[in-house]
From TrEMBL:
It comes from Drymodes brunneopygia. One of its GO terms (cellular component) is P-body. One of its GO terms (biological process) is mRNA catabolic process. The lineage of its organism: Eukaryota, Metazoa, Chordata, Craniata, Vertebrata. It comes from the Eukaryota. It is found in: Cytoplasm. InterPro entries: Dis3_CSD2, NA-bd_OB-fold, RNR_Ribonuclease. This is DI3L2 exonuclease. Residues 107-182 form the CSD2 domain. Keywords: Cytoplasm, Exonuclease, Hydrolase, Magnesium, Metal-binding, Nuclease, RNA-binding. Transmembrane segments: none annotated. GO terms for molecular function: 3'-5'-RNA exonuclease activity; metal ion binding; poly(U) RNA binding. The gene is Dis3l2_0. Its main location: cytoplasm.
Amino acid sequence: PDVIIEAQFDDNDAEHGQDHLQDALTDDIKKLSLDTGEKGKAAEVTGVHRIKQDDGPKVNDPRLLPDEFLQRTAKVVYILEKKHSRAATGFIKLLADRNSELFKRCAMFSPVDHRVPRVYVPLADCPPDFVTKPETYSQMLFICRIVDWKEDSNFASGQLCKSLGQAGEIEPESEGILTEYGVDFSDFSPEVLECLPQNLPWVISPGELAKRRDLR
């Protein structure tokens, strides 16, 4: 049978370090191997089966154990930076329980990215005829932004930002991906456009070409 070896040492033993501990454990294993063999034979004769070896002193100070025997544990204490944009692309649908109070206030948002949780969104953010004609919006893509997620709830809370269009079309799908990753795809401001050459068509001068590496 598998045997767990445990031992206890005082402060004087701790001064000898891990080498002393390993030597002591090795001696205990040898003794137990002999004891287990003799007691096993006796158990066969008497019909008694030994289940586990629980007696023996225990190690109270984990600092005496080698690192490979320790399980590292930790907990999150602070979020330095929120990497996700909290925006997701997905579909809206009515809640399953039509008799609940939540059904009268919220709809369910199901993200396309399954790494993002499902979200309760207010019915006020949904199209006006969504409750009466939910099938009309079954293939319509929406952008939802998560605003909260309570510890005792399986679903987050969020707000619908906008309707993108039909799923499967290039423009709505592209806009949804860019929004999820926080990419600014709005038009350039006049200040940015003024930095560009105004005399068109613009060409690179021969002198500029001579000191550049041509990667065309």
